[in-house]
User: Fold this.
Amino acid sequence: MILTVTPNPSLDRTYEVPSLDRGEVVRATGERMDPGGKGVNVSRAVAAAGVRTVAVLPLGGAPGALVAQLLDEQGIEVAPVPVTGQTRSNIAVAEPDGTLTKINAPGPELAEREQESLLATVGERSAGADWIACCGSLPRGLEPSWYAELVARAHAAGARIALDTSGPALLAALAERPDVVKPNAEELAEAVGRPLATVGDAVKAAEELRELGARAVLASLGADGQLLVDDAGAHFASAPVDAVRSNVGAGDSSLAGFLIAGGTGPAALASAVAHGAAAVQLPGSVMPSPSDLVPDAVTVTADVPLDRVLTEPAA
Assistant:
């Protein structure tokens, strides 16, 4: 069972449009409404793979009730933490060339009692969990140290933690030694305070995060592939993608694939890449099912192409 924690969930609406022209009336050619938030997406991908998952998340107002309903319809067990504020609603606009424009609302501010209730619920529901995936931004009211407290409590209870966040929240949590952190290239560059131009730059940055406490680093490098740096060294994996339809939730699908496959080693890295490659070829934030995966197309190597220039260098 994989338990996910999403401190700032959302109700996501995705519109597919021929083009996005500012100041004009744009008619959508397709639309979707999905429960959102990074941890929620991980649960959705885990459930799509037929693995049990429990989603812990604060929910409030009509949007929160709809998020719970949509998750229930997807066979995901929800452990809601009632909050006074309304769950945020986000909008994504997808163009045919893969360009995605997102408008993310800030979300409600959590009171101190709501913050503690969220931590307590994680503790109550984590029994029997193979992994706890803590994902996404922190809502207003939560200090950057909140994830660090969650990692410390989870480790004290004997659980393994996967952390997917960024900025001060990521740096604060590293001291508690999360079992794996999953930054993208931009988040990795932000964490080490310098730009990344090559795969080798990303390897060095990942090693620095390990020096700060992360036991393993699973880094998404966009179209170039993914990198895993752990006690066994560095491995690089990639897979061809025919056409990018939407990258919403692709990183979350990758983390789900990694954890489903055990959360360690090259085989888990290959699963992460297969899930991510499948996700970007699906509309909106649709999570891939096993039939969408092409595992034989994934290439994994310990001969990391250090000099390869990143398609999208991280500033």
